[in-house]
Specification:
Largest sheet: 6 strands, parallel
Order of helices and strands: EHEHHEHEHHEEEEHHHHHHHHHH
CATH architecture of the largest domain: Up-down Bundle
Structural class: alpha/beta
CATH class of the largest domain: Mainly Alpha
Bound molecules: 5,6-dihydroxy-NADP, zinc ion
Strand content: 5-15%
CATH superfamily of the largest domain: Dehydroquinate synthase-like - alpha domain
Distance between the termini: 40 Å
Number of domains: 2
């Protein structure tokens, strides 16, 4: 294993009824709360009313910051920071998925920082010296794991760049996670969020070191859990066991635990983020299109790990197969699973424009943790292979 330092500052309250039980206590220091949410799902499923009841009873002043879009923009971050400053908010409460949580992490920084956070903390890795506004999150959809890390993926529409940075200082102070809040997530979003979980695990698993290490073992168990529980939740969206497992799988994939001692790849994320910057496509769907094709490009450089993946995650038998055939069968099982759960398999379905492929490929970051370091030419080749 490589050397590491581990810390996770977010305190998690998990389970049915946790918001009712703990929210009042967790917000007791704040008089004015910036309540942030997305396009309104929380108003339709009762979550908004449940939260407002608690905050009203506690006599809080609530300032609403709504309409946070999927793939949150830098402009939206500025809007939130303005609201927080003008109303002297003491705390941000982000209620939603990765988009709302990410946007609010950036708002928590911009509200307390005089300069331009895009230039100083996203274009380059900066050092946060100020104290960001305290942030608490209430998770309503499983997928990104944003609740337990300092990562915030923001789209700068003007510059056509979608980019994430992870600052431990932006970890939420607390995360309330009630799996019943995810019952109302539409199947399509549940599936794409679950693929995002799988993607985070695979992006970490398929990287060095390859010697025996506990992170790889945990990841195999997590991948099996996502596959099993997603199948169960598709059959019965109100299966509490399945929804709770998916919710915790999502956190476990991105709370830094599985990354310990690993290099990490995340080239598929680099590619998907730029596809998103140009087409605003759904994150999990974009990843589903790219992963199998990318793995066909790199598996020979990490053959032993791809063999393990086939055998330990997909139960592929090695009988009568050489290593390359076992590895290829694992990638095939992954692409069959993508079809089974109804995710797209081509960039055309995502609405990506063919004539922009080269420009998008050229704008992608190159991961140094891949088994095979990409070139922009090879990324373009991958995009062309999965276009239609
Ligand atoms: O906006 P509302 O109306 O709330 O609807 C949302 C949205 O349409 C809906 N939804 C959420 N909870 C619901 C619900 N609908 C019904 N019932 C509920 N309980 O789901 C839709 C998607 O929400 P969104 O927050 O956009 O999805 P997700 O959690 O997948 O977040 C995606 C964003 O996170 C970034 C992605 O790039 C993308 O911008 N990521 C963040 C990461 C991080 N911070 O660690 C890592 C990831 O790799 C990822 O890049
Ligand atoms: Zn992701």
């Amino acid at each position: 294993m490589n050397n590491f330092i581990f810390q996770n500052a977010t305190k998690v309250y998990f389970g049915k009824g946790c918001v009712k039980e703990y929210l009042a206590c967790l917000t007791k220091e704040a008089d004015t709360i910036l309540l942030a949410y997305g396009g309104g799902s929380i108003k339709r499923n009762g979550v908004y009313d449940e939260i407002m009841d608690i905050l009203n009873k506690e006599g809080k002043t609530v300032v609403e910051f709504s309409g946070i879009m999927s793939n949150p923009t830098y402009a939206k971050v500025q809007e939130g920071a303005r609201l927080a400053r003008e109303n002297h908010a003491d705390m941000i409460l982000a209620v939603g998925g990765g988009s709302t949580m990410d946007c609010c992490k950036a708002v928590s920084l911009q509200a307390k920082y005089e300069g331009d956070i895009w230039e100083d903390f996203w274009v380059r890795q900066g050092v946060i010296e100020c104290e960001p506004l305290p942030l608490g999150v209430i998770v309503t959809v499983a997928g990104t794991g944003s609740e337990c890390n300092g990562g915030a993926v923001i789209t700068n529409e003007e510059k056509k760049i979608k980019m994430g940075r992870d600052y431990p200082k932006l970890n939420p102070a607390f995360a309330l996670m009630d799996p019943t809040y995810t019952f109302s997530v539409p199947t399509g979003q549940m599936v794409s969020g679950s693929f995002d979980i799988l993607s985070h695990i695979m992006e970490t698993y398929f990287s060095e070191p390859d010697e025996d290490n506990v992170s790889d073992d945990i990841m195999e168990a997590l991948m099996r859990s996502v596959i099993r529980n997603l199948r169960a939740a598709i059959k019965n969206p109100k299966d509490y066991t399945a929804r709770s497992n998916l919710m915790w799988d999502s956190t476990m994939a991105e709370n830094r635990v599985i990354k310990m001692g690993k290099k990490c790849d995340f080239e598929c994320h680099n590619m998907e983020h730029q596809l998103g910057a140009y087409s605003n496509c759904n994150h999990g769907k974009g990843l589903a299109v790219i992963h199998p094709v990318y793995y066909r490009h790199i598996y020979q450089n990490g053959l032993a790990k791809f063999v393990r993946f086939a055998e330990n995650v997909w139960g592929i038998s090695s009988e009568g197969k050489n290593e390359e055939e076992i590895a290829a069968a694992g990638i095939h099982a992954l692409s069959e699973f993508i079809k089974e759960i109804g995710l797209p398999t081509t960039l055309k379905e995502l609405g990506v424009k063919k004539e922009q492929l080269k420009e998008i490929a050229d704008s992608c970051g190159i991961s140094q943790g891949s088994y095979k370091i990409m070139t922009h030419e090879e990324i373009l080749q991958i995009f062309e292979e999965c276009y239609e």
